[in-house]
Specification:
Length: 171
Amino acid sequence: VSTQSTGFIKMTSPHAGDDDWEQHPFFLRELPKDPSKNPYINALAEIAYEGKTSREIAIQLKERGNEALKRTPANKEMYYVALKCYDDGLEQKCEDNEVNALLHLNKAAVLLQIENYRTAVEESDEAIKLSSDITKQLKAYYRKAKALNFLKKYSEALEAAKKGLQVIFIL
């Protein structure tokens, strides 16, 4: 039997040298950098998504990404967790363009935070193409303009901002 001190109690594995239990989600001390490589987390994810449509799964992944973003002030690595959630949501190939646009829009917001401006422009463009919702389009044009500004592409940033204003005045 192997034991490990956690500070308060000793955790005991029933098999000598078997530290597999440390990978179980109930015993993790911190989220792994790539949770998709943990078979226990994958098994729980499959249970969580069982019987759900691609749209429902995409929305759930978007919400998980949003939750990760709420933790970024304490842990900057959560930006990458959020990106992974949004990417996984897009991989669901949901037929709802508004859900997909929101995933692209959220990715653009994260990419701005981690200073990946070129990809933020691309994600904003995808959101613009997919969404017919004025609010989403306005946010996408804003994020695109902001990213272009950081890239010092001032005329393109101004053009994106103007298009965003045109969306407002279509009302």
